[in-house]
Amino acid sequence: MRVILPVGLAAVLVAGCTSTPPAQPPPSNAALPVFTTTTAPAPRGERTVPDSCGKVLTRDDLDRTLDSVVTGRTEAVVGVALQSIGRTGRIDCYYGVPEGQPNSAAVLTVGLAGYVDSSSALKRVRETVDAERDKGTAPVEVAVGADKGFLLDGTTRSLVVAHGKVTVSITATAALVPADRAADVLGALADRALRG
Fold first, then answer.
1. CA dist list (Å): 30 to 26, 33, 152
2. Could you tell me the pLDDT band of residue 43, with boundaries at 50, 70 and 90?
3. Where is the stretch described as Disordered (predicted)?
4. Where are the beta strands (DSSP E) in the chain?
């Protein structure tokens, strides 16, 4: 009896020391995770028409987005409500107006207008795009944050977009914004103006 116990124990030990590898689990059909670096633009809240250009775009906003310094003065023209088109208010900001020159000499103009509803705002954008198309400018749809705007590239570079009840119109001189960067630069400025 004493001999059987050590022989049985030896058999178990020898079986555990075999050179056969342990059985592998079958391969899983689980899909590998896919990661993306593209993120959706952050949503914006409802924008109202401000009462000053510093609340539309700051000089820092311009310098960072344009990769250059805009010199000259900033002028504001505050518009009034215009019931016939559903407009509740407006502000036009003229950035980079040279000394002794009128506002029309600005290198960048940003206009924000509020409307009674989003359909009135969209209608104004469509009318602007159609008017430019009639003049021979081909509109190009571009991203403005989560919205779609229209780049109008003529003697100046312009972008118009509606977000909710507010529209933004940006016009830059060709010297300030090169054609190959117009969609990105004007889109970024419009998005910033819509965020307030």
1. 12, 9, 49
2. low
3. 21-49
4. 73-79, 87-97, 108-115, 140-144, 147-153, 156-163, 166-173
Q: What is the pLDDT of residues 154-167, one digit of tens each?
A: 889 999 999 999 99
SS3 at position 124: helix
CATH topology of domain 53-195: Protein Transport Mog1p; Chain A (3.40.1000)
Q: Average pLDDT of 107-116? A: 98
Are 30 and 180 contacting, i.e. CB atoms less than 8 angstroms apart?
A: no
By the 10 Å C-beta count (0-12 exposed, 13-18 middle, 19+ buried), 186 is classed as buried
pLDDT at 23: 59
The burial class, CB within 10 Å (0-12 / 13-18 / 19+), for 55 is middle
Tokens of 21: 């590898």
Q: In the prediction, which pLDDT does 49 show?
A: 95
Say if residues 153 and 140 touch (Cβ distance below 8 Å). yes
Find all residues with CB under 8 Å of 59, minimum gap 6, and list them. Answer: 70, 74
Are the CB atoms for 166 and 160 separated by under 8 Å? Answer: no
Write down the pLDDT at residue 108: 98
8 A C-beta contact, residue 148 and residue 161: yes
